[in-house]
Design goal:
With 74 residues, the chain is α+β, with helices and mostly antiparallel strands. The protein has a domain of 50 residues: Metal Transport, Frataxin, Chain A, CATH 3.30.920.30. 36% of the residues lie in helices and 24% in strands. Strands 1-2-3 form a 3-stranded antiparallel sheet. It holds the Pfam family HicA_toxin. Keywords: Endonuclease, Hydrolase, Nuclease, RNA-binding, Stress response, Toxin-antitoxin system. It comes from Candidatus Yonathbacteria bacterium RIFCSPLOWO2_01_FULL_47_33b.
Length: 74
Amino acid sequence: MGKLSGFKYREIAKKLQEFGFEFFREAKGSHEIWYSENTDRYTTIPKHSGDMPEGTVRSILKQANIEVNQFLNL
């Protein structure tokens, strides 16, 4: 297991809020789009129960332009 495994939706959403992201709108299926005015970037988060796969968390961080170490140290 990598260092980004084991995160749940709520934990990711809370950390994104600390980076300045806010819920923007619902997306297709059980996904949400979040937006940051500070960076003018969007990211899509699946709103599923259970742990998020590590690759999904990496994709969220890449869209949000957040480094893995920044995310983990927050």
